[in-house]
Amino acid sequence: MSYKILILEDNTLLLQTLEDFLGGHDYICTLVSSGKEALKQCYENKYDLYLLDVKVPDLSGFDFLKELRASGDRTPAIFVTSLSDQESLTKGFMLGGDDYIKKPFDLSELLLRIKALLARAKGIVDDWLEIDDAYKLNLARKRLFHNQEELDINLKDFELLYLLVKERGKVVTKEMIHERLWSSSEEINEGSIRVYINNLKKIFGKDSILNIRGIGYRFEK
């Protein structure tokens, strides 16, 4: 199974070098050059590791990770930076960074650090939540499985499904959904909730989620 890595770096040459190198080792890379674009990608997709430059446009690597950690995202993160002062390094770790490597760096060393961090994270990879005999959620990697097959659902579908399953038999209010699916800096879209609900109904059946008019939803499966 290939791991998915989000790379935040505004140096085009380095970005391409990292994609070529890591792609050659079977990692699937998403490349972004600004903090805001990285944040957008993370709200739409699931990743196993972040490689983060600090000095990037729109939103620094530090602020990017701070935003994600505040939303409950615990995906392993490595800072790839030219900053070397103790204050900056301390800030990176305090914000939730797991490791750092200073520029310029050796690609083989970066690969070792990635492998070590992912191996460490495997301790929580088997954190499962069963929905029924066929379906289960991998909470650490934010994946939905049908038997042994991974299903393709986006991150907000996953977060909504997790909330509904965790509160199975109870009404999940719209306020609870807002708090789970959107960070404080994101604009809440009521229409999107209906889209996510319909996406889940396509998987589990139209009667699997009951609409409690004006209040929220209840998972019936």
UniProtKB/TrEMBL annotation:
It comes from Sulfurospirillum diekertiae. One of its GO terms (cellular component) is cytosol. Gene3D superfamilies: 3.40.50.2300, 6.10.250.690, Winged helix-like DNA-binding domain superfamily/Winged helix DNA-binding domain (1.10.10.10). GO terms for molecular function: phosphorelay response regulator activity; transcription cis-regulatory region binding. This is Transcriptional regulatory protein QseB. InterPro entries: CheY-like_superfamily (IPR011006), OmpR/PhoB-type_DNA-bd (IPR001867), Sig_transdc_resp-reg_receiver (IPR001789), WalR-like (IPR039420), WH-like_DNA-bd_sf (IPR036388). It comes from the Bacteria. Residues 126-221 form the OmpR/PhoB-type domain. GO terms for biological process: regulation of DNA-templated transcription.
